[in-house]
Amino acid sequence: MVTQRILATFDDYHRRATTIMATQRALLAPGSVRDPATQARHRWELLRVLVEFQIFKHRDIFDPMIRQGDAHVARCAQAMKEDCAALGMEVRDFVTRWSDGSVGENWDNFRSAKLALIAKVERGLVEQRRTLATMVTTISAAGAAAPSRSPVANGIAR
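Predicted structure:
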């Protein structure tokens, strides 16, 4: 079933992002070694995974639901897409802000900001997953057709 494939892909991206964030949190624990170079590598790794995740969500989840869903589903998907885009911009802004070489001299500010961002991203992903699962269940219960797959892109039709 397409909806199960979408949820499985969502969960895979979520696991990947969560793993990176757990590593980052451990590297920021009180008493840990201050390592700006490792933080930079993990910062960019997280950004890459979250950008891929965002593209997947917009292309394969939100846009098809906006186009093919009833008015309620379309509104929910649009709101989720906007929230996702705003959070993605916040992550990009964070990476830009802390890619100026100032992490080492501003460690405490960086650490606080990074932990706050990780917590916000984790909350956002959990909320997206919960809302998405509810929407998929509602769509399935209503007998609505799942978004169709594109034979060319091997994904959801655009």
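Summary: Confidence is low (pLDDT under 50) at residues 145-158.
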